[in-house]
# Entry
Amino acid sequence: MVSWGEETSLDVEYAHAMAPGARLVLLETPVAETEGTAGFPQIVTAEIWAIEHVDPSVISQSFGATEGTFPSASSILGLRSAYELAKKDDVTVLAATGDDGSTDFSSVSGTTLFTSRAVDWPGTDPLVTAVGGLQLHLSRNGSRLLPDNVWNDTNLYGTPSAGSGGVSSVFARPAFQASVAGIVGSRRGVPDVSLSASQDGGAIVYQSFPGGSTGFAVIGGTSEATPLFAGIVAIADQVAGKHLGWLDADLYRLGSDHAAGIIDVTVGSNTVTFQQDGHTVTVPGYEAVPGYDLASGLGTVNATLLARELKAMNG
# Structure
């Protein structure tokens, strides 16, 4: 509960930081999500309840489980009802891609990693917008000192600590990714967009809950990037005067049109190297390149311009 308390504090405070006028509704479920199906049935139930009773414009999810830890692809497909309802009811659904670069956990204990490329669901779901991680280089007044790069602190911490990205083993390439078929091949690729996630410049979060330390802490990861983007979506909805709903097709169209609201990221990689079972393991990741890539997605966003562009597309 303590670790999820940290996640909850980060999510609520940084959605609020981006959209201070937004109404925030926190959903809590009784079973922790680790890997595989675990707590997902309760999460799906809670999200369906929220869609039916709260009328949210955007759902932010700072969690995921490695596709390879589910019993089968069908076990994932059986958990999509909340996202199907969200699309029908014009609710935007976001999910963090994860914080382990090109790999992810292969065990519920969170101590063993896949030694080959792996990605998380629900980020890989085509009904969800997957949010990856960047490192920003800002002055005290918020001006960029250097271009953003793919977040990768693995060398700093000695364990995978990078924005996750890659291709799904469950979902085929959706129609909205036809323009990037040369990158993703025949599979669904993630992330879609990326925002701030590095510990260097991370979120300053105030925590005060039983079992945890009280005070400010610096927290990073795609669990930071996702509520940041959720706040942007809430503002874009306000600008548009309605719920924009499922965003993926619009985002890729804007990317193909080189719209000013989408900012390309061309620096960095999510390759990770770590020690496991007495061996040094390197899982090759993906490089940021001009255009879409499996390290940063379409890139990051200029929120002001993106909100205007989404309004124009959905007028």
User: Anything to note?
Assistant: The first helix runs from residue 2 to 18.
